[in-house]
Amino acid sequence: MKKYILILAAFFTAGISGCKKDYLSLENNPNTPSITTPQLTLAAALNATASNIVTQYNYYGVWAGYWTTSGNYVPNSTINQYQFTPTSFQNDWTLWYENLANYNNLQIQASKDPSLLNYQAIAMIMKAYGFEILVDNYNDVPYSQAFDVTKNVFPAYDKGVDIYHDLGKQLDAAIALMGKSTATTVVPGADDIVYGGNMAAWAAFANTLKLKLAVRVYKKLGVSDPLVTDLASTSAAGYIDGSANPEADVNPGYINAAGKQNPFYADYGFDASGNATGNNVYFRANAFAVNMMTTFNDPRVDALYLPLSSGAVRGNGFGDPGVESNTFTSAIGPGLLKSPSQSQPIFTAAESLFLQAEAVQNSLITSTSTAKILYQDGIAASFTSLGLTSDQATTYYDQAINNVGWDASANKEQAIITQKWIALDGYFNFEGYNEYRRTGYPVLKSSIDPAAISPTLPTRIPYPQSELTTNAGNLGKEGTINYFTSKIFWAQ
Question: Which of 135, 185, 319, 344 could bridge across to 80 with cysteines, CB 3.0–4.6 Å?
Fold first, then answer.
């Protein structure tokens, strides 16, 4: 990160948020903010999180088997050949620390006023959300010293596993804090562009994120790890299920205007005039995902990828030197690119239900539902999110096909992760790749580009050049990082 990035980010929130009634307003100069409020900070930070989730990880979309690069362009050496350097993915680090600095600022500001405990709790939840992503990308990162810039201009690195354990504690504290609400407690309104002040939904979100941490680590750290054993303490908060506890969707009022569209639509769809964006043209369907869904008789393939005029969905092979042009390959599909005003999910019901299915299957939690029902509900949630029907979902998962039908699947965990991987396609490319690194499912294919520098997929990306430049002393303590053998602490 740049030397002063956290200092600057702490003062950035008011300018990017605009006025109270329009959280996408660009009227204010972001370099000269005047005064901010928790309401303005919250809306701006949540909107930035939604953008970070969907605009930074197209390379993971390729490595995860969802997308390929277009045959209309020269081969992408960074993605297809793994010839990346510390300068390749700079924003993955910088934008998250900027976003987290804003949540940290909100947490501090709200903690000074007992009536703002809900804002404090949301900030704690979203800090846990962002730091999990940083750990999942880099393993060890600045955490305990990340925002104390008066004392630590060059923050030390905390171990990824230690950060995970503390995130669990922070989520517990956030859930408890929301439980202390009184008649004088301020309930967020339109400034809460996720749940509109539904604090029970925020508690379920926090508890679902806590479950995600536990599920991610239990294979490596065991079922006696505190993240697992503590799950029962907050079971009353419930989990995101898409009904009683809705999924987390961001929408500050996206409209079809420059700078105000849904971030995924604006990046991978069309501009305000209806012209295809560069990424819409550049990223095409991956034959790996297309072939899997075709084999599964999965109608989601026509929603995740745009059918050709013939009605067929076709993808390129990852790194194929004979890659076909866009005339013969499918673009990102209508189930993802619904409209410029669509809400942007940051935690879906489908992902939560698959997490619960895995947790129940492995006796990490108890539930009134069985693993089978949760698995089928996760598939149904994925179908409906893409514009398909629950009846179509039922027809799909009733098939006696391995990794589709529950009873027909010999390895239940593989079935859960395979269907979860399909459900993460597009909006959550990074999460799909994480599932592969954590479980080995599905068995992804490495690049077949003859110039690829490794026969295997990357296990992680490099720390950014900005850290090498400004925080080299602490970064050096991490030792040598090999992008094909160094692993995140939870990876198999």
Answer: 319
What Å distances lie between residue 417 and 147, 359, 375, 431, CA to CA? 36, 12, 10, 11
Gap between the Cα atoms of 13 and 425, Å rounded: 31
Give the pLDDT confidence of 389-404 residue by residue, as tens digits: 999 999 999 999 999 9
pTM of the model: 0.93
Give which of 437, 458, 436, 425 is closest to 54, Cα–Cα: 425
In whole angstroms, give the CA distance from residue 160 to residue 235.
Answer: 25
Domains of the chain: 5-256+341-476 (1.25.40.390)
Helices (H) and strands (E) in the chain, counts: 21, 6
pLDDT in tens, 322-380: 999 999 999 999 999 999 999 999 999 999 999 999 999 999 999 999 999 999 999 99
For 248, phi then psi, to 5°, come to -90, 105
Cα-to-chain-centroid distance, residue 100: 15
d(CA 113, CA 91): 34
Cβ-based burial of 450 (10 A; exposed 0-12, middle 13-18, buried ≥19): exposed
